Amino acid sequence: MRKHTTRRPHSADPGAFLRAIGMQQQLDDTQQVDLTLGVRAAVLAMRNGVGLEDHVHTLASAINVALVLCEQGAGREFQDAIIAGQMALMRTIEGGKRTGQWGFDGPALAEVDQSLAIYEAQLAAVPRIAARDAVREVMRRVQQGHVFEVVRERVV
After folding, report:
1. What is the pLDDT of residues 8-63, one digit of tens each?
2. Other C-beta atoms lying within 10 Å of the C-beta of residue 71
3. Where are the domains of the chain?
4. pTM, full prediction
5. Taking 60 as the threshold, does the pLDDT of residue 152 lie above it?
6. How far apart are CA 96 and CA 90, in angstroms?
7. Distance in angstroms (rounded) separating the CA atoms of residues 104 and 125
8. Closest CA to 86 of 66, 101, 100
9. CA distance 103 to 120
């Protein structure tokens, strides 16, 4: 039986191979700055005592991307440091929700700084497609509910 609609031939995309090749290249300096500027601004706000909960979540996103990149083999030896950074952020969220003040304690600042240094080094080392896929994987995990949550115990 024949279709009743007209056939529309799909033309080939002549630039597809250029995009595919481009995704195998490293992120250039401006792209790295774009990906780290908000993260560094969030650290600065938290360090200066004017942090907000949104700043902590910005940092968590970057550190989660770093963890996924570690899992995929980009700096696998730093995975424990990344997890320590995540735990430091959880302590910070817990304290922020409890006190209303969003800032780091000394150990948390050091652990988060180390995690972010790893994140920036990973962005300089991985191809664009790996960075993009890591961000997508973090989003997929969040949508599936695979997140840390701060649970407050009720005192009776």
Report:
1. 777 766 666 555 665 667 778 888 888 889 999 999 999 998 999 999 999 999 99
2. 13
3. 27-143
4. 0.78
5. no
6. 10
7. 28
8. 66
9. 22
